[in-house]
Amino acid sequence: MRLSGKVAVITGGGNGIGKAAALLFAEHGAKVVIGDFNSEAGEKAAHEIREKNNNCIFVKTDVTNPKEVEALMNTAVNEYGKLDILFNNAGVSNQSVKLGDMEIGEWDRVVDINLKGVFLGMKYAVPFMIDGDGGSIINTSSVLGIKGKKLLAPYNASKAGVIALTKNAALDYGKKKIRVNAIAPGVIDTSIVDEWRNDERRWEIYTKSNALARIGQPEEVAKAVLFLASDDASYVTATTLLVDGGTITF
């Protein structure tokens, strides 16, 4: 098992990519701590993992709240004794409007969750990793943080920021044996694309606008995250791994 003996915190672990990663990490021997704003989804995911005789706890967490993020990391260490892996995955999209029509509150909401949440996760996880034997941090960006898309200004900007922040953290803590990488998924079958799914004409375009002519599944992204979290990626840091079915080249 690739994560045997490791302790992993996953934000946004109640649904989608985060849940798929939590299940996969547990299958590979990790003790998992799920942080999610949605208590029902988080508890359900944790229960599924424990039903398979794997270790998992849930901590209700608003990733924009410093005290709650700090408590999430503290709980992981208090429960399992250390912190080896952080998957900063919590994220949201925004209402599809032009930049000039964007409400300031909507901008703040998206950037706070997608970018500030990643910052806070690393801020409070890194000290435990330094005190331990290093660690691996994986941050969820997006293919739209690289290429952009109209009507999604705060989402695009926040996900581009995640890529830059990932590089910065990798440079800051590489000598402390902490690797920091990002993933950039394309269109994945999760709730974050529900608004697109409701537009039949556009959904047909979105689902085929890549080299594989299909959308991805959360489990496919989770496998990429598992690689970056594991010792198989021991010489990989400061990189952004595209998991997009070839969207970026389409």
What report would you give on this structure?
By secondary structure, this protein is of the alpha/beta class. The chain has one domain: NAD(P)-binding Rossmann-like Domain (Rossmann fold), CATH 3.40.50. 46% of the residues lie in helices and 15% in strands. It has a seven-stranded parallel beta sheet, with helices on both faces. It is globular.
Provide a quick synopsis of the model.
With 250 residues, the protein is of the alpha/beta class. It has eight helices and seven strands.
Number of strands: 7
* Mean pLDDT metric: 96
Total domains: 1
- Strand line-up in the sheet with most strands: 3-2-1-4-5-6-7
What Rg do the Cα atoms give?
A: 17 Å
The CATH topology is Rossmann fold
The name of the CATH superfamily reads: NAD(P)-binding Rossmann-like Domain
| Structural category | alpha/beta
Q: What is the helical fraction, as a range of percent?
A: 40-55%
Order of helices and strands: EHEHEHEHEHEHHHE
Low-confidence stretches: none
Architecture blueprint of SSEs:
Elements (H helix, E strand, L loop, with lengths): L6 E5 L4 H12 L3 E6 L2 H13 L4 E5 L5 H15 L4 E4 L15 H28 L3 E6 L12 H21 L4 E8 L8 H4 L2 H9 L9 H12 L10 E4 L7
Parallel strand pairs: 1-2, 1-4, 2-3, 4-5, 5-6, 6-7
Helix pairs in contact: 1-2, 1-8, 3-4, 4-5
Annotation keywords:
250 residues, alpha/beta, Rossmann fold, seven-stranded parallel sheet, 8 helices
